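Before relying on records like the one below, remember that each one covers exactly one chain. Contacts with other chains, cofactors or solvent are not represented anywhere in the record.
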Amino acid sequence: RDMFCGALNAIPGVRCPMPEGAFYAWVYFDIKGMNSSEMCEYLLENAGVVGMPGSAYGEEAACFMRFSFANATQDLEIAAKRIREAITQLA
């Protein structure tokens, strides 16, 4: 949790509050012109990382995604690195 959320928070334009009890991260992407469904599709296609759009949880106004971090640390490190690279390509 700490590593994954910390790595995401280190990406410009990405905010990930530290979850208190669940094994899911609720992540905000400050990417102009993309909604949560578009961001999910973009990260799947460009980073090979799967997340759920915030719109699936009723969050329509902003670009939020939910990621599970119930996975091996090595896999989470790879996912965070791929997300960083994909987001960097948008800038």
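Strands lie at 14-15, 24-29, 52-53, 64-68.
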